[in-house]
Every structure is written in structure tokens, then in C-alpha cells.
Amino acid sequence: MFVVLTSCVTPAFAAQLDVRLNPAKDDATVNMRYQRTIFIEYENGGNIANLLKNKEFTTSFTADRNNPGVISLMNILNQKLSDTGSVTRIKYLDVEYDAHLTGRNLNASVDYKINLIATIHNFLIREYSDNSPALVDISWRGLTTEAPIVINTSEFGDVEINMPISFLQNNVNNVYNLLSNTTAMELLSTPIINADGIKNQPLTNWHFLFDPTGINVDASTFGLADEISGFVVSSFTMGESSIREGRQVEKVFENLIKLDEEYAIRSIESADSGNVFVVGFAAVDKVDSGEVFGVSPQSPEGYATTSTGGFPVMIIYGMAGMAGIGAIAILFFSSRQLKKEAGQGQQGIDPSRLRARSTSSEAGGYQTVRGEAYIADENNNNNMSDASNNRGSMPKGWKP
Fold first, then answer.
1. Is 70 exceeded by the pLDDT of residue 341?
2. Lower CB density within 10 Å: C or N end of the chain?
3. pLDDT tens digits, residue range 306-333?
């Protein structure tokens, strides 16, 4: 048995963040989801193909804040927050875990999903006053750990959730034994719980929107919750392809290994994404090199933007004014052109000089309403001849 490493990369990580922060509340609920798919490809068959074809395994459970493994994970994350200078702490934590293997004729896939539902507190650094906005800590958003996380469950026993290889070890141990001495272990041992991509994307690159609907006197008719009544709501989102963030694509990493046959081990993750909603008007700031939101109940006077870019009212009015000047210019030049062409009208014969006469009787047939037109001027014969010619060619022997 020998191993060939044809591709070696350091994987990046994918996570999805969703949180709503209210500076007037002590706690907030954070949903942090981590997803990854591992493919084991065996197009040439082989021992791994024989072990995985048509096989299907699932490990799925929920562990609450009373589980010792969950408490251990919470303590690890809080220590990491402390090390990075964040004042926010996780108060409660629940874990949802799901891993599913599907074996097919040419490959097998393992889909990993971890959802952390965290209750955070102490994110308010400074309360709002008439002279200064509230300061809200947001530097905690990169919830990450490289440590193995073992959670005890009633159905599956002890389950390690942070290393992809652990699922293979628990469900298809023969495949684990074949891969354990190969370079694929580096890829299969890369932690899933990693939100560094969200942490490392500066908030100034996130897309900003604010919704002033809450300040309307009839805001409740729009189904708005009581806690945002009387306030604007700010939102910051990341994960879109833009000039600010760059192009966002799936992350694909691959190792080729040679055992009895050649196998490809691929890891696929979606782009990082995040949604942070803040009750009030939020602006990005820094305190001791950590990112914070400066939050006020209302937007600054004259600030009428609802999207990234900060268009004040005067700029919007200026743009409208420029559009009006353009419309006036178009009307002015159109009027000049119409006056210039006035009186030119139709070119050719003046209709007032045309005369009509009946022609059916002259054709030797019965009388009809058929007629012809000719020009009445000093030389009627010539004009009648011209008018006849204008009718087109006539049969031989025809006399008008």
C-alpha cells in the first residue's frame, strides 16, 4: 500500500450567522449554522467502493444546555471570545447535529450540519444617552473552535461533532481504517465549527440597510413587533458577490490518494454569509481595535438613505433636480426643431389644384363611379397627359 498526494490545500470555512440585537434588551439569540459536504469518489471501484456502495447512515440529535458536552463547548467558545477581546459571553447554548452518508455507484457523500443556538449577553458596552449613541459589541461573531467536541447522546452514545472523520469512524470503521494512514486525514480532520470568514470580513464591507417603518404611528398595522415600534431597524448582511466583498463562490478542496485504486476526497462548502439586525440606527465604529455598532433610536436628521452609500436628502433632491433640467432641455430643443420645420409640410402637388372627372363612360362600358384626377392650371392638356401617365402604363389602343 502506498499513498500519493496530488493536491494539498488549507481549507477555508463556511458558516451562516443570523442574529437580532436590541440595545434595550439584556440578551439576544444567535443562530450559527455550519455546513460541509465530503465526497469520496471511487470511479474505478475498489475496496472503498465495495464498502460504501448503496450504504446509508445518519446521526442526528439535539442536545440542550444541560448536556455536559454542550456546557464544555460553551466554555471553550467563551474562552475564545475572551482571548480575542470581546466582552460578549454565551449564557446558554443548544446544539443541533446532523450527519448523513449516502453511498452511490460512483461516489459517496457525507453531509454535515451543525446549528448552534446561543443566548448571548453583555453585548451592550454603553447605554444610549442624549449626547452619545449606545455601543454594541459585534466582535464576538466569529464563533470558532478547533477542539474535538464530544457530546453524549442516549441514542448514539458519545459523538464527536467537530471533525468530519469522526462520523466515518463511528459508522463505517473499515473505511476509516483504510483512510487513517493517508494524507486525506488532513482534509477529513479540518474542524467544522469555524466562523473565521465572518469574523475576518470587516463590517464596513457588509451591505447596510435601514428600515424606518417602525417610526410610523401606524407601524403596528404592518405586523411589526412591539419591541421595534418607534424605532428604525438597521441590517448588515454579507455573503453577496459585490465590489466590497469580492466574488463569493463555493469552496472546493480535493485530495487524491492511491490505495488499491485511486480515490478522490473532496470537501465542498458554500460561501460564508451573515445577517445582523439591530433595533435602532446603527453605524460601524471601533473601540480598542474591536468592531462595535454605535446605535441611536432614530436616524440622524436629514439622513434619508435606506441602503449602503449614505445618500443624504440634498443629494437625492439634487439628482431629481438634474433629471428635471434634462427634461426641460429635451422639450426646448424639440420645440425649436418643430418651429424650424413649420410650413414645410407635404412636398409635391398642391391638393387645391387637383380636379376630378368621370372616366367609365369613355372606356366604352357601363357608367360607374370610377374617375381620375388631373391638375388644373394654364395647360390642362399637358397636365391631363401627366395625370394619365401618373396612373401607370395603359393597354395598347387605350385613349383617355
1. no
2. N
3. 444 444 444 445 555 666 676 777 776 6
- Please report the pLDDT score of residue 300 as a whole number: 73
C-alpha cell at position 347: 412636398
For residues 158 and 167, the answer to whether their CB atoms sit within 8 Å is no
Task: Name which of 35, 262, 271 is nearest 164 in CA terms.
Answer: 35
For residue 370, what are the domain limits?
351-390
Kindly report, residue by residue over 147-198, the tens digit of the pLDDT. Answer: 999 999 999 999 999 999 999 999 999 999 999 999 999 999 999 999 998 9
Residue 146 CA: distances (Å) to CA of 73, 163, 394 = 11, 9, 100
Q: Which amino acid is at 125?
A: I
DSSP one-letter code for 132:
B
Placement of cell 459536504 in the chain:
37
Give the count of alpha carbons within 13 A of 389, CB side only: 7
SS3 372: strand
Residue 116 lies in a domain: yes
Q: What is the pTM of this model?
A: 0.70
Half-sphere exposure of 130 (CA within 13 A, CB side): 0
